[in-house]
């Protein structure tokens, strides 16, 4: 059994890395299909997106729904357990945007706003 020094280590093991928090951030606004996530996260490779989604599903953070249609349709959404991460993700977002304001004076110079952005105005 792995030992941890604090809760931050545990949290980062589950949602850390370059992509998982970003995927979860986009899922806070509702269900997304794989192609929607690819459009929202253009720098992620399809292989990496699939791997990260599988890991998040295995950890019970997201729920995957497969619709038996032709062509097949798959949607991802936060599980009830995953929804408990929303405040963590909101805090990450808030802190990052405030940091950009501190460093650049105006986050709009470096932050692209997505249609599903969590904040109207901070």
From TrEMBL:
UniProt entry tagged with the keyword Flavoprotein: no
Keywords: DNA-binding, Transcription, Transcription regulation
Domain HTH hxlR-type: 6-104
Pfam family for this entry, one: HxlR
Keyword presence, Transcription: yes
InterPro entries the UniProt entry points to: HTH_HxlR (IPR002577), WH-like_DNA-bd_sf (IPR036388), WH_DNA-bd_sf (IPR036390)
SUPFAM superfamilies: Winged helix' DNA-binding domain (SSF46785)
Protein name: Helix-turn-helix domain-containing protein
Taxonomy of the source species: Bacteria, Bacillati, Bacillota, Bacilli, Bacillales
């Amino acid at each position: 059994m792995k030992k941890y020094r604090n809760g931050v280590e545990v949290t980062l093991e589950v949602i850390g890395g370059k992509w998982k928090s970003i995927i979860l951030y986009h899922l806070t606004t509702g269900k997304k299909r794989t192609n929607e996530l690819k459009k929202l996260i253009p720098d992620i490779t399809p292989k990496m997106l699939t791997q990260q989604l599988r890991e998040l599903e295995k950890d019970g953070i997201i729920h995957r729904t497969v619709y038996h249609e032709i062509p097949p349709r798959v949607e991802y959404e936060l599980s009830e357990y995953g929804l408990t991460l929303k405040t963590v993700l909101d805090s990450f977002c808030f802190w990052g945007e405030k940091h950009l304001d501190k460093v650049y004076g105006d986050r709009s110079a470096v932050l692209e706003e997505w249609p599903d952005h969590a904040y109207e105005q901070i």
